[in-house]
Amino acid sequence: MTDPKPLRAVLYVRLSKESARSTSITGQTDDLSVIAERAGWDVVATFTDNGKSGGKERENAQAAYDLWARGDADILAVYAYDRWSRMGIKTLAALIEVVDARAKTPHPATFIAAREGIESTQPDWQLRAAFAADMAKRERDLVSSRQTAARDRMRRQGRNAGHGVPPFGYRTGPHPTLPVGRGLHVIPEEADVVRELAERLIAGESTVKLADELTKRGVATAHSEARRAALAGLPVDGLDRGRWKAGRLGKTWTSDHLLGRISNNGAPLLDESGEPLAPFEPILTLETVLAIRDRFTPDKQGQLYRRASGLLSRMAFCSGCDRPLYPRRTSVSERNPDGYINYGCSAQAAGVSCAAKVTISARKLEAEVVSRYLAARGELPETRVVSYLSGGAPAGELSALEARLKELAGRLAAADDEEELEALTSAMATLRARRKSLRGQLAIPAERVEATGRTWAEAWNESPERETRRRMLLHLIDHVVVHPVSASKRVVIYWQPERQPPE
Question: In the CATH scheme, what is the code of domain 170-295?
Fold first, then answer.
């Protein structure tokens, strides 16, 4: 007679990062190896999870289970049940299902938890395993609640909770004002990017294009491998810098952390006076962040506000129906993969009849309008109107109060906690009283015209942003009417009445 084949075993061990008494990976592996050698098992694989959180599914634990469940091993041996899983009874149910399904096959499945002495060949193993599973889950929940309470306590003390990668624009370090704990410190290079993008977002530039530009410039995303390495002081050459996306821009540039604040679950924490807790150096002002948030706030139809997509959008109109001309991309070909952009009549899209149905090349129309604008104004000195208050209380403080009240009103509408409602209402009452006092001190607003030192043509050439140029055109032009090709004069510009240029 030949000796029967040894039972195939898969071993699993895990090092707990939550306990100072945690048995080492080597010690756990040695203990299981001794058991396997004494029993004569053929160890086909050993899986290890080093320091994985007890509240998360572990990739290697799942791999060990899968190998055993599909019949590639007869025995799944773990050092301890709580090292195997803290996910509760649902994990035990999966073990029981495999053991029962293979009970009458040539290769029955056996589960062993060495430290607890649990073995699925024992009559009471399910009861003992259920007790171990429940205890493991209770320990997980206890650890989780302790960690959550500790992080919440640190946040309310004005300290960085140290949970995850620091937000874009900041790194962690010794707290800037407290004698203990960690805080956030501005990274100058990232702060420059934050301020640059803030201006461009407020100006209405496309978030998709801005995201593509950041990616091409090699600006590392907050959670990229390159940024993690840089924060750790390690080389970044060859590491992935991540890819920026439009949605990520919106979340990052509207976040409270750019105001130096500490937030939790999307809302800033408040101090005893009801003001946001802001212990760190801000990168942006509140007015700037609120302006960016307006950019990403849905309108009444639930659509995000979008700036005009063409230089003459909402300025150029069809002569046949007086409806606006919209820029459209057409004529895509192999030689011209981006297509041509034409301004076309919007009557058909609106269900309106138009005899003219004007269409004109965007390049030609914009070139003609710009040429005539610069001819009328280009050589004149550029001026700007500056508003100011003569005497009285500082206007900056009133502006900050208005911004703060606007922010609190938004949070008040969304609040559902009585304590938070009371704190917000009290804070708003204090701010309103201060605003009333300031308004009583303000002098009459005044304006003055200042020369910038350059011509309007120079200002045009030095301001490539579309929205800036649109504002310059609208200062002089009321609207533009485009006629069919057969008309004697195809493009007619209607100037602002008070700024009619000489013919």
Answer: 3.90.1750
